[in-house]
Amino acid sequence: MDSAGRKIIHVDMDAFYASVEQRDDPRLRGIPLAVGGSRQRGVVAAASYEARRFGVRSAMASVTAARLCPGLVFVPPRFEVYRAISAQIRAIFAAYTPLVEPLSLDEAYLDVTSAQPGAPFATQVARDIRAAIFRTTGLTASAGISYNKFLAKLASDHRKPDGQFTIPPAMGPDFVEPLPVGRFHGVGPATEARMKALGIHTGGDLRRCTEAFLTQHFGKAGAHFHRIARGIDERPVLADRPRKSAGSERTFQRDLDAWDDVEAAVTALADDVWTWRQRAGMAGRTVTLKVRYADFEQITRSRTLPHPVASRSELEAVAAGLLAGVLPLRKPVRLLGVAMSGFETAGDRDGPQMMFTF
């Protein structure tokens, strides 16, 4: 790796939410576990490895997960706990490099090209980080090491859980060739289906396509696909990316059809968002309401103020005003969400506005 220039590590916690719950409650260890949802309603936020063996995955409808795994145990998420552990993990990252790009609470890219002299090799840095995470949190992490972000993320999946894998420059293109395109970060289900319709099933198939062909069918993303099929990814690790939104949402055990219940739920969600805003020290101008009806139709309504939201009561009033705009209720409500965006820090009252949509 030393001769390749950049040294990028992708660290990914193993079944993070589920592993935290199993760590904190010994009764949950070794059993199929889903965080979030219930047997009747909602969506799985995370699944333990025991549940994954039955095909249970995050973002899966809870009823589907329960059907796949009759013995599945559902537990409610504890996001405050997950955020606190994530802060511990990021403090560990910061001890090795200032170039950390968090992707979520449980994964991040690290650029260790200029790592501390005591740990010159990226593979050893990854080992040290994983060991420090385990000592501090009792949780395991997997890591991928390579010369770019695309390959590092692929590598972190290669030896999960509690493992790591290195893809050096000489291995990069050959490693990509046999992989299904659905494994590539940035290729979602819709893009994967379009690729397969064009006869593109693997990295090797993708490599045989010209950039012009890929651009014709996938627009600007075509050039990116052309590069990654050859193991090329020049994206830098972007430290301290500004957060664009913060929100709270809830899927209800029963559909809400009474206006008082819907109004109370929106007030509670706005309260959650304000609690986060106080802790984070961020001030947002834009408030967004999300409503998902019982038939899964979804609408959003937003309002951008001329100033950052100044108080809890103002946030609740704006959210209530957005809710009034969807009156009368056309059908029962399955999910509600409130989000704040267009952030400014306390010392950046004249900064650019960042818009956010669900």
Automatic annotation (TrEMBL):
Biological classification of the source: Bacteria, Pseudomonadati, Pseudomonadota, Alphaproteobacteria, Acetobacterales
Annotated family: Belongs to the DNA polymerase type-Y family.
One BP term from GO: DNA-templated DNA replication
Residue ranges annotated for the UmuC domain, each copy included: 8-188
Source species: Rhodopila globiformis (Rhodopseudomonas globiformis)
Catalyses which reaction(s): DNA(n) + a 2'-deoxyribonucleoside 5'-triphosphate = DNA(n+1) + diphosphate
Cofactor note: Binds 2 magnesium ions per subunit.
EC number: 2.7.7.7
Gene that this sequence comes from: dinB
Protein name as it appears in the record: DNA polymerase IV
